[in-house]
## 1
Amino acid sequence: MVSWTGVILIMTMGEPFAHGHDTTFVSSAQDGRTRCASRSTRNAVELLRRVALVSHVFTRAVVSRGHTTLQGEAMASQRQLARLLKQVQRLNQRDEYWAATSRLARMWITPKHAPPYRPYVTLVLSQQGKIVSSHVLEHPPTAEALFAELLRAMRRPAWGAGGARRPTRIYLDNAEDVAALAPLLEALNIQCVYRPVLSMADEVMGEMETHVGKYKPLPGLVSIPSVTPQLLGHLYQLAAQFYQASPWGWFHDHHSFAIACPPEDTPRYAVVMGSGGEVFGLAVYDQLEDVRSMFTSPVSPRQMAKMSTWFVLFFEAALAVSFDDLDAMAVNDWPVAAPHAYPVFGRTTPEQALALPAKSDLLWMEGALGALLAYMDEHMEVYQGEVQPADLTVSVPRVGGEAHVHLRLLEFDAIFREDHGG
């Protein structure tokens, strides 16, 4: 018998899901040196007062949590920032604009002894498109940290970005950052302007992510034509409920469901994965013959993956999900059952990769998950988890309206009967 888990392991352990990198890959190479310095002290007192106010609020927040060590660090940071301000105040000012952004990058950092994470990359670019400063952080920077980064960029620009100087304008793509930094930068005679789109920063970030990325980015479900955020949100909700129901504790490879979901007349055949404790999810076959082959074919899982394709839902860490879908999840607040239970929907290919499913696949999955959850709610509790034969029609809510889904749990022997019409 060929194991569903064995085939899916081949898929998930292959290259398409490998986005990790062992080291941090964007450094802040700053080699410039301050040359001539202006002696002007205009607005310096007011600027220091404003920065002191920002630091005071930060220090009070630290003290309220009772962390005396962090309080000392905050005071030291305030002194360092004050010194940096004085140095920047003396710099010559050039009539030019800079663009600055701090955003969640489309790349992964995978430390050897810590969970993987997507870094926040702070970029400061000159009007000529030169990288004045770049910095990688595990968490989004505070307004105070971003202000300090801008000051350091002015005092010591990265090698090749020109000498130390103050620009006349800085464009930021975050309105909250603009509100916080505008008064501070104004005291340096620098305008802080909100620009929702920074094309120059987009281009640099895109080149950086392409250069660093080891593999081609995964396509996202959001890119499937005519698939709406409402449908995807409902699928993520159903997938989270399915994972939390732990169907692999009740069903195994010998439990095949024939599920017919409108507008399709013929059923597809679903098998719950996870009883072996390796890969958890749902394998879906278009024909009963494909299910038979999984039990009767003498070939290996790798050979079987080359001979046929099927639709699959399995649960993995976030690295297995496309960046487009991860960003859509964050924007729309789609649920995830656990950090290691991000739902992955796809169709296997003969090349042992995972391709995007069709919209019809997702519509079927929406109805099938709803029907399986209803079946488990109504039957497994009554029979105390013992699997009973089932042949029922369930009314299932879908984004496009109510649907009547026919679900039948096949007897194992029936899978091999040629007269079984599905």
## 2
Amino acid sequence: MRKLFKIQGITTALVFSAIMFALVACEGAAGPAGPAGSAGAAGADGAAGVQGPAGPAGPAGPAGPAGESAHHDEEEEHSDAVLSVSPAESGGTSSMYGAGFGPGETVSITAGGRVIGGATANDDGAFAADATVTLSDGMYTATAIGSDGSEAIAPLLIASK
């Protein structure tokens, strides 16, 4: 049995030596480089980069139009008129308040193409009036127009409960 292991060991050593010799003997000088392969497919877009710094300020813009003069003549005296109206149901009553009209100025209030109320401004140019509104549900612009040319607008909501 010992002889068998001894022969197997020698045989294995000879085979291993022959393989090593073959590998070393077969290794020669490197050959020339082969031709380049074809280009691969394009890769996916990368992640967005970090935002850069702000650029320089642009040139100054052109000058704006001149503002209104501090001088007011008689026609402009009542140009700061204001109007406030309360919401109402169709067929209900809306309370309307105005100021900035001329003393004793007659004011007509319209909405939806209809006259919905009227009043006369007191000595301070203010008025209060209640009007029955027969407009359908919706949002309207109420306009108060004075007999001396004063004008003011306000939103008017007509809605069912």
## 3
Amino acid sequence: MKILAANQNSQKLPIWGMIAINEQVEFVTMNDREKYLFDLQGFLVVRDFLSNTEVSVLNQAIDANPDKRFEHPRADLDGTPLDGEFGPFWHYDGMLTWPDPWCQPFRHLLAHPKVIPYLNTLLGRGWKLDHSVDILTATTGCQGMGIHGSGNVTFNGSRFYAYQNNRMRCGLIVCEYYLTDVNPGDGGLCVIPGSHKANFPCPDDIRMWETNQEIVFNIPAKAGDLVIFNETTSHGVLPWRAAHERRVAFYRYTPKYLHYAGGVYQMQMPEWVSELTEAQQAVLEPPYIYNRPLIETDGETLVRPRREGE
């Protein structure tokens, strides 16, 4: 794989906006409409992000590994609108290490070429996977989950939203890939739009969806759509009411200098990481700045500047 010099420009794609982080380096970013919507709402829906084939292969992998499924504990939500018969969802874990070929579609999402402009814009280049990859599923009767995310009320360096010098920056963000349709009223992911900028705590009765339900938005999306939201945006889960199964894949990312939760590495990379491409391996690097591998626009080429001019 070709490694470009730090001062060599990335390939320019006219569909995206380009922003210079110093006088020598440019990188691909979200377009102006997407920047406006994320800055306004604290989340963004990217329609038709995955192809029908990608969605199908991901679902086939899940179907082939029923033994990896376990239930999220049911919370004590008795008497609240969020209550249900079962926990809020079932998890699948360890997807990156599932046997071939079932691991491959999940590894492909680590550094999907189409996600690069979004992560570049929200985190700066050198972003990294945080937490483990997660699959969440739900069936009729699954309860919801209380709304959480503190906006500007609590700044601890891991969950935040900032804007300066024509750039957005976030702490932890979530990329939620929809693998089945979510129609209005089905339940699942919900957000309070604009709450990533909130300066006052969310009242408990709103957090538990007991009052002011009109400000809570249950995001409808089709299989293949991607929802990106800031962890500091107030978000939760509404009870699942649809007859079909909810399926979403969670990929969480942080800036190159931040480590939010335990990841795939301890003191050294596990052996299976050597099976990944160099770009996929770069997403699993621990947090550091100097000479960090940065993924170029094509999703394959890496550059290793001593330090980005941010």
## 4
Amino acid sequence: MRDASNTPGFSFYTRTCESLRSAGMRVVKQLLVFVLAIFTTLTCSWASLGDNYEKLEDSYGSIGERRLRDDGTVSILYHKDRYLYLVIFGDGHSISETYFHTNGTDLSEKEISRFLKTNGFGATSTPTNAGKEWHFRRNDGKAEAIYGTVRDRPALTVRVHHWKT
């Protein structure tokens, strides 16, 4: 038997194959990272207007306070990371959600946009200024949002129209 390593061109072939194998592994790793990123994005559950208690608790974190209101609705204050979420439930589903920073600072335009998109306002929602408040209307007319002062803090409140007790 002849030793293949002494054959002319063998070392070029070996280096080329190793290089291709290495490049192939890089592509597979990049593809895997991409697929995991897509999967994570799709399974990331942002709660939105109309969701039930369980979904909101999973998304918004620990409960700070819970109150039964005179009109039969329930208000729950959640705390997660740097946000406070004040949610009002009617018939087990959220009918109003208010978003605050825990330190009382303004929400950025990016944060406001994210909360609006999560609640079905879409990317084209433009605010109408009414004094110090910004008003947003959802395209289907079923909800509105107001960025203003709530409980002496700047906040975005999103609520459904025409909820009946």
